[in-house]
Each structure stands twice: as structure tokens, then as C-alpha cells.
Amino acid sequence: MRLFPFSVAAGLVLAAAACIGTSVDHEVLGDRAYTNRYFAEALAEYRWALRQRANPTLRVKAGAAALRAGNLVAAAEEYRALADEGGVSRATEAADGLERVARAAAENDDRAALSAALLGLREISAGRALGRFAEELARTLGAEARSVEGLNVLPYAAAGAPDARHGDSLMYVYGAGLARLGRCDQAVVVLEGLLRRRREPAVLRVADRDFARCALQMGQRSLDSGLPQGAEEWFRKAATRTEQ
User: Fold this and answer.
1) Quick check: 46 and 28 in contact, CB under 8 A?
2) Are 154 and 177 spatial neighbours (Cβ–Cβ below 8 Å)?
3) Which of 59, 129, 231, 232 is positioned for an S-S bond with 222, CB 3.0–4.6 A?
4) 202-237 pLDDT per residue, tens
């Protein structure tokens, strides 16, 4: 039987011992990196630790590191995993994390992260997506949201609005945003609904204008597609709104 030199055997023992304590070492390394503001490195260390043992506290650390590193999709993944692994006791913490991710995603026009965060919220805390948070996020987006994903939170905010007029104001921002992003086929449905309800005078004035613009675009599209009757109907709608 071949014997290894003592130094080699000792090295193998030390390597085995290091492997046993890998998860603890990675968490400590992650904490150290996070403290020194190396957030991407901290996330990598926490994820190594999570491969060896699922732990809600590690998930929270990984989510925070991902958020601070600007890796918002990864942050959404970590907070959703926290809800799955931590159960009811961690659901509120996971929802708080997803709210932070959604706000950051809206501010940075990160469409994938915003979609992931909103989907996570709907799964674990639907009331937030339909209530206070959606309205706050709508204010963050303002009238200049740069993506359809960002605008899609507005109907949820409108559904949780304290009154119908406030809800219509939010729906106007949604319709106007769709129009600005070239989605007039969707915008006209939203704007026409507002005009039929006639609940908020300030909304009606601007909705009239935006609906007329979109109706003209839809008419031109119909003409370009060889549909003169459809074009005539859209042009008639645009003229009617302009005259009011």
C-alpha cells in the first residue's frame, strides 16, 4: 500500500475540514464584503452559502446585497425565494424587499426586474399590488414612465384608489403613457372609458386631446392597411372629440 508523505496527508485533512466549514466561511466572507461595500462580491458569497444550506437569514442578506449591487433581477429572485422558504413568518419581509426592488426598477427603467418584482408581490401579497404600494409606485413613475412594464402598475393603483375620481386620474396617466409609447390601440380603450364615465373634469380635458391624437393615428393605420371604412370611423371620432 502506497503511503502519502505527511505533508500531503495533512494538506488533504485541512482541505476536507475547509470543505466542512464552507457555508460558514462564505457567509462570513459575504458579511465582510457587504460591510466594505463590495455588494456584488457579497451576493456571490451568500449564494455560495445558500447552495449548501437554505436559510431565510441568508436569503435576506443575499437580497439586500443584490439590491445594493444594482442586480435587481437577482434581488427579486432572492426575496421570492425568501417567501417560499420562510413561510408565513417571512412573507412580510419578502414583500418589503420586493417593494424596494420594484421602486428601484421603476426608477432605473429595468423592465425585467419590475416585472419580476410585481409578479412576486401578486403571488405573496396581492393586497399590496392593489393598494398603497401601487399608488406610491405610480407617483414614482409619474407621467413619464418609459416602459409598458412600468405603466402596468397603474391599473392596480387605480383599483386601490380611495375614490373614483382619483382612480380615473391614475387611469388617465396609464392611457396617456400607452399613447406616448406608441400603443394607441390600447390607449384608445382606456381613454374612451374615461370619457364615457365623465367623473373628473380635469381628466376629461386632457383625455379628449390624447384620444383625438390616438384616433387620428388609428385612422391613418387603417388607411395604410387598406381599410377606408375603419379609417373613416376613427377620423370621425377624432373630429368629434376635437370639436368638444
Assistant:
1) no
2) yes
3) 231
4) 888 899 999 999 999 999 999 999 998 999 999 998
Q: How far apart are CA 189 and CA 93, in angstroms?
A: 37
Torsion of CA 141, 66, 133, 211, to 10 degrees: 30
- Specify the pLDDT at position 52: 87
Share of the chain above pLDDT 90, in %: 42
Q: What is the pTM of this model?
A: 0.58
- With contact defined as beta carbons under 8 Å apart, do 175 and 194 qualify? yes
Q: What is the dihedral of CA 158, 163, 166, 171, to 10 degrees?
A: 30
d(C-alpha 188, C-alpha 179), whole Å: 8
